[in-house]
Amino acid sequence: MSESQAAPAFDRTIVEGPISSAVWKLAWPTMLQNLIAGVQGFVDHAMVGHYVGYQGNAAIGVSWQIFLIVIVFVASLYSGMNVLVARFAGAGERDKVNRTVWQAFLVSSFLAVAVFAPIGYFASPWLLSFVNAEASVQAEALPYLRIMFVFSVGMLHFFMLGGALRAAGDARTPLRLGVMLTVFNIALNVVLIRGLGPIPAFGTKGAAMGTVIAGAVVSIYAFYLLFSGRLVVQLRGLDLRPDRKIIASLFRFGLPTGFQGIAMNIGGVILLRFVGSLAQSSEAQAAYAVSYMQLFSLVTHTAIALMSSAAAVAGQNLGAGRPERTAVTPRAAATVGLRVAVPLGLMFLLVPRFLLGLFGLDDPIVLGLGQQFLAFLSVSSILLTVALSYTGALQGTGDTKSPMWITLISQLALPLAWCAAFDAWRGLQPTDIWLAILLAHFTRASLSVLRFGAGRWRAIEVDIGD
Question: Which of 7, 13, 49, 154 falls 20 to 30 Å from 347 in CA-CA distance?
């Protein structure tokens, strides 16, 4: 028996059983993993808020908004990888699954180490100035951001491996690895942020140190599992040289997603610049960081899990020659997601001060801005869930260009034009920015549903040769 035959079989219930069950089977472990991972962000912000102050909260929020540009571009390769892996898994072509994952590892490693690390290190001061971060916030954010740029390759590999396994139908292994990562990360951050014994308190910088150390350790263990042959994806016995045809396919399907992610996060950075231009900029940035990047992440993590699940189910069924099952996938994913998004939206509306207080926010101005923002986000929670369910289905079929154009319109052009217009007309107010974000989510959801309904994804072909 060969090594590839000894690997666990692909889960055929994804292409043969009920669609709702297939979506849920892949979604719930990812939802749980993302929610558990969100605890790490809560711990970071709560500890930094208590030991450093709201300037530390603002620093982490600003830094992550900048660093997400790198994450989403490298993740674009992973999106291309997921398209290929889902199609090949649905067709039962194991060797192509394994080869695709290895080539994604090679390309993303080169980009992370040789391109983004040096550029990010030297560009960090300019990027922080661009978003109008105050001097006190920049002092906390600069070392944090540089650590993330230079040492994040392990964390990126963790994201890659999780995506590959989920696209191949295994969502439980990424859940186990994600729990390990979060527990290790929290333990490190508790020590590094506040200090313990001979270990000094690193404050905001300690949060970045814990994140990159935990990501490196867990990703090394994950690669051990892949080379052991015990997972549905395995890397032993492969030709380890770069394969131009596979790499070209990764970029073909991945680059639109990368441009989509970059556009979305550039929009986020420019929105931060607008937030930084407000009269009470540091208070507004702290409210933005905690409300949008932490509390709303409960919705975002759930919606991203559904996007990943919808992509895998849609792609595998298309690969298995069953487009009629692909057609009902996003609706099933959205139905599942709304059962989570609606209760979370009600929490944002009914108990905002309690939620903000969990992060050590007690400044009256910050609390007022955060409460105001969460009211808008209570509606956005529903819209984003629908948007990402349909985005995932489009991407899973190989239609990665449509979500890119939808994002350019909804997440970049619309909110930025809105803010610029009000800024020029009468001076920008916080509610102008909060409403711009809500309108962006509404537009993205509407266009995504309409585009998937057009059905052009049925004609997309995927091939990397034998």
Answer: 49
